[in-house]
Design a protein that fits this description.
The complex is a heterodimer of chains A (499) and B (32). By secondary structure, chain A is mainly alpha-helical. Chain A has helices at residues 3-27, 37-40, 47-57, 61-74, 79-103, 108-115, 118-151, 155-203, 207-217, 232-248, 252-259, 264-293, 296-299, 304-316, 319-357, 363-384, 391-414, 419-438, 441-444, 463-481, 488-498, and strands spanning 416-417, 485-486. Classes of the chains: A mainly alpha (499), B mainly alpha (32).
């Protein structure tokens, strides 16, 4: 165990998190606790904070450790996960984030109540909360991996300790504090990444050029190409774009920070910071992972894909730099963990507890319910982390469940509002998705479910395509069959015109 | 069943759990 490193990392977390927390409490001491204060920062966040929170909410375990893992296994084609997120952030900052903020809702299902009906709202709440729970278990796995790099403890033990810290962080912090910690952490992380990449380049025999030569000499040139080996564009690159764009753009975890912005203008301006802050990360991660895989001492590690890159960082970097980098990774993952836990709790409290059980609940009761749910869900997620699904494959599978939600949301905003059609679309897509995942349906199309490692034609990668195609098909057919009311924006425009 | 499938089943179970809580609340709210 590297005690100095561990102390350095813990010191960073404490100073930044507790320090900022105290400063923010003093600044907002005289503000009355509004209903939106804990979960939405009183809808008051400025451009830099919104931008960095948007960027870092979707920069957690999947980006940091998932890209390390995927690059280890498949090479530079992993960059498509990053590219998919730049496209996503553009769509959120100019589209869905703006629309949700304008409509003044607290959650995504709340909007669906307006465009479809209460049944749609409830179905989406349950599936979205489940998907977010899945992502939370992956984030817990990520915390475990970083703590493993610092202490040598097993991933499960690290997930337990780190997860508890994550839960404590979010129940005391709330959206406002998470936002400001993100701002400080993003700056520290990029400074650390740039320095680390430079140091590793100098430490390697022959620098990064030698890394390229290694793959060429081993006949693994595909590892260096962003298009990857044969079939990887359809089976990985494009799937990433479809899955990420058509799910995260309406996922509560990313919409919640957008809804916390001061105004719609804030969200649009945030794009110029959010996209590069998120996008550039992938480039560094791939360089580091390719370098680690090319060094024999890490290449042959047990579980090298998950642990090789972080182990190289700990061993090659001077202790202070390793501390800064790992501390900032941990903070980035903790912030994602926090926002997701907060989102699940907000969904449950707003769309199930308040909507169905206690419509007259006070602000204090609702805030307490959010905190209780964070602890319960966080605790279960930490336990589930030890199943260790391969990270990016797990995320792509989770995203597929939200793809139908994207299409019915867009349909209800821009085309027609019809609750029955929404419900039928969702259920059809989800049932077939379930069959694709658990039965022998893919085998009928000549695909194998290869399990953990995605290779060529692998049923596990196709869930997002399946749910997308089914959603579009059902909505298209339904469009000509059902009457329904005008889409939400159309109806609002008409009402304004008539007024 | 590999561990990935077990994890996937766990996620779907969580969706179903929320679903049951929501269903109970929905039926209660309808009665009110």
């Amino acid at each position: 165990m590297n005690t100095g490193l561990l102390i350095g990392v813990l010191a960073y977390e404490l100073i930044v998190i507790v320090g900022l927390g105290v400063w923010l409490q003093m600044r907002h001491k005289n503000q009355v606790a509004s209903a939106d204060e804990f979960a939405l920062a009183g809808r008051d966040l400025p451009v830099p904070v919104v931008a960095v929170t948007l960027a870092l909410t979707v920069l957690g375990t999947a980006h940091i450790l998932g890209v390390f893992e995927m690059t280890w296994m498949m090479g530079s084609v992993a960059i498509w996960f990053s590219i998919a997120h730049v496209i996503l952030l553009t769509f959120v900052c100019l589209g869905t984030g703006v629309w949700f903020r304008r409509l003044g809702v607290q959650t995504v299902p709340e909007l669906l109540h307006r465009t479809s009906g209460v049944e749609t709202r409830l179905l989406v709440t349950c599936v979205m909360a489940g998907v977010l729970f899945g992502i939370l278990t992956v984030e817990a796995q990520g915390i475990g991996i970083v703590i493993n790099a610092l202490t040598g403890w097993s991933i499960a033990q690290g997930a337990l300790v780190g997860g508890v810290l994550g839960i404590l962080y979010v129940i005391f912090a709330g959206m406002r504090e998470i936002g400001y910690v993100n701002l400080v952490n993003a700056i520290v992380m990029y400074l650390g990444l740039i320095a680390a990449t430079a140091v590793i380049g100098m430490k390697l025999n022959g620098g990064f050029d030698a890394v390229g030569d290694f793959y060429r000499n081993e006949g693994m040139e595909d590892m260096l190409s962003i298009m990857g080996g044969p079939g990887l564009f359809i089976n990985f690159a494009l799937v990433n774009v479809v899955a990420v764009l058509f799910s995260q753009s309406i996922n509560q975890m990313l919409i919640q920070p957008a809804m916390s912005a001061k105004s719609t203008k804030t969200i649009k301006k945030a794009l110029w910071i959010a996209a590069p802050v998120n996008g550039m990360f992938g480039v560094f991660a791939i360089a580091i992972a390719l370098a680690a895989r090319a060094q024999p001492e890490f290449a042959n590690m047990a579980d090298g894909a998950k642990l090789g890159s972080t182990t190289m960082l700990v061993q090659y970097l001077p202790p202070w730099l390793a501390a800064v980098l790992l501390a900032s990774f941990l903070a980035a993952i903790l912030s994602t963990f926090a926002i997701i836990a907060l989102s699940i709790a907000t969904l449950f409290t707003n769309d199930i507890f308040k909507a169905l059980y206690k419509p007259d609940a006070s602000v204090a009761t609702l805030t307490m319910m959010i905190r209780v749910m964070i602890i319960i869900i966080g605790g279960i997620a930490i336990a589930a982390a030890s199943f260790l699904p391969p990270i990016l494959a797990a995320m792509i599978w989770l995203f597929a469940w939200l793809v139908p939600v994207f299409f019915i949301t867009m349909y209800g905003i821009f085309f027609k509002r019809h609750n029955g059609l929404s419900v039928v679309t969702l259920l059809t897509a989800w049932i077939i998705n379930g069959l694709w995942s658990f039965s022998s349906l893919p085998m009928m199309f000549g695909m194998q479910r290869m399990g953990p490692i995605p290779v060529n034609v692998n049923a596990d990668n196709y869930n997002a395509y399946i749910t997308a195609i089914i959603s579009i098909a059902v909505l298209a057919i339904g469009h000509f069959i059902v009457k329904g009311e005008d889409g939400l924006f159309k109806a609002q425009a008409k009402a304004k015109g008539a007024a | 069943m590999n561990t990935t499938m077990i994890w996937q089943a766990g996620v779907v179970t969580m969706m179903a759990t929320f679903g049951i809580i929501a269903l109970i609340g929905y039926l209660k709210a309808k009665k009110r």
